[in-house]
Amino acid sequence: MGSVSRASTASGALLLCRAEPAVVRPAAHLLRERMRLAPAGEGWSVLVPETKPWASGADPVDQVLGGWAAALAVGAAWPVLALWWDADRAGYTLAAGFRRTVGYVWLADGTAAGEGEAMRTFAARLGLDPVLDLEQLDRLTRPDPAADARARLLGLTAVLARAGVALPVGLTPGESADRLRSVAVARGAETVEWSGWRDAVRAELDVVEEGPLGPWLRGPRARALGAAQLALGLPLAAWGLARRSGGWTVAGAVLLTHGALSLAYDRARERP
Hints:
alpha+beta
């Protein structure tokens, strides 16, 4: 019990979305978690979780955030970057559409525990400079006795600043979840929370129509895509439930929702 308490008080997370808040809002509703949403630079938004599902000890913070990031990025035209940390580790998870998520981990003392290839993939998917930015990212993987896990995350956000990220003052990686929530509230970040399936359906249609799947809303391509999402979402949700992983269960549920709504929308639009 003591270890769970220690992890929960030292843990925290931020979700960076490469889209404006108005675009992120409908997708964030589908997570069914209470969040605070705010701008985070030109073309970026940040979601601050108000809940701490990882505090129960069922899933560590990296798994929860990985599932959330994947759920947000499914069918969206923008990538989602989850920054997370606890008493023992810190890291990131980058999700972009249906592509495999990529992530990196540092131990509490700053020791790198990830693969160098992850940094290269990270830079490529975010369109970072393949020379200057990648060199800075590579430094984060090298031994540095003066840099702990928090310093590594701050170094990462410094690189992201050149891609337009500007986190609101006080929303600093490494702070506790409670501290981040308090700062978000004080700065007037808007609340995003689950408001029922009726609003979720509308939100889901907004996400699909504004995303890269817009041209696929009707016809044979829409039906094929919807069927593929259902086929992928069902085993993913089942896997998440079997492992009691809330984050991946949500990702599977969002895929199922996408698929079902895609088929329903196509059928409804065919009616005279």
